[in-house]
Protein: Threonine synthase
Amino acid sequence: MKYYSTNRQAPVATLEEAVVKGLAADKGLFMPEAIKSLPQEFYGSIEQLSFQEIAYHVADAFFGEDVPAETLKQIVYDTLSFDVPLVRVKDAIYSLELFHGPTLAFKDVGGRFMARLLGHFIRKEGKKQVNVLVATSGDTGSAVANGFLGVEGIHVYVLYPKGKVSEIQEKQFTTLGRNITALEVDGTFDDCQALVKSAFMDKELNEHLQLTSANSINVARFLPQAFYYFYAYAQLKKIGKAENAVFCVPSGNFGNITAGLFGKKMGLPVKRFIAANNKNDIFYQYLLTGLYNPRPSVATIANAMDVGDPSNFARVLDLYDASHAAISSDISGTTYTDEQIRETVKKTYQETRYLLDPHGACGYRALEENLQPGEIGVFLETAHPAKFLDTVESIIGEEVEIPVKLQAFMKGEKKSLPMTKEFADFKQYLLSL
Ligand SMILES: *Cc1c(COP(=O)(O)O)cnc(C)c1O
Structure:
């Protein structure tokens, strides 16, 4: 399979090139040249397959031409060593719990898959070390770092803003050691992101080191997120609720929802999608006006969705030939304030005992307000509520139990390197490696 750039000013790339480079030379995002439909028989008996079996079918459609079947199967099965259960919350609203992976965030799926696929390419080619740079405001860093931990030939540098990530999040990427280095930047998340971007553009650095990104712009992190939409559908079908399924996705950079849109293109019978935004509602405004106006992000309590210029919007446009009408007929949007998010976490907990995290709360509320009679709604619960401990505890006025997996991280010892926000310092450091 070849991959083209959404900007169409760069040569097409192989899967390997797309994964190793991350971003196309013209700064566009890579898109597969074909999106294969899966056969009717697959959908006809999907409810009898396991999560791993379903995911392998989907992975084969994307990557089967470029990765040997046994290797791909191994990568898929190793990645999905945890379940993604569908839990009924109320009436026709279901939570797809994506937080049962090692770092309790949905990014575990893409992070683990990408690490294994990149590892495969490095082994195959006998390549020199690949260095993954990732800027994080919390969740991406932990999922990527844990996904890549111990993968030979790859070193991960996590850049995070000093004092601006929660203690739990910080522990998840500063206690690992081995091929993971945490850089504690004296600055904001935007400063971290700027350092990473400058590094990718710096000619001298790129001659010296093989650098790549593990954000959702990378096809190897982005496409595997389609897996769980198929599995959710299978679970709905099993209970006779698969007709008129609506997926609602708490969205920031729009990687997660775009993977679902790919699923629909492959024939997955989804009626429609809802993109739930917090106050950073650039996409919602686009749906209303047809105009895409990126703006600086504002901080909210659903901070993984604080994105002012969603990178995967380029992929959404590309999928629908930039037709606002076509996009609006498949996707609707919502926007919520912190106050509304708090209210939703509290009310849902009181009424159903289901504890939402602030991101999932946006998804749940969007379904509550928008689901039509006869529709079944599935929102993606993108993180475990304990990852946002202080926020959630202050909302419900009760202590939240910390899962064993998170407690294990808390016991580790933090190790990080201090870094200024000056690119010259960061570059110097990378050159000295
Ligand atoms: C990353 C993240 C999101 C946003 O996902 P996108 O793919 O960037 O739209 C939502 N919720 C949580 C908890 C996240 O970590």
About this structure: The mean pLDDT is 95. The pocket of pyridoxal-5'-phosphate is lined by residues 105, 107, 139, 216, 250-256, 304-305, 359, 382-383 (CB under 6 Å).
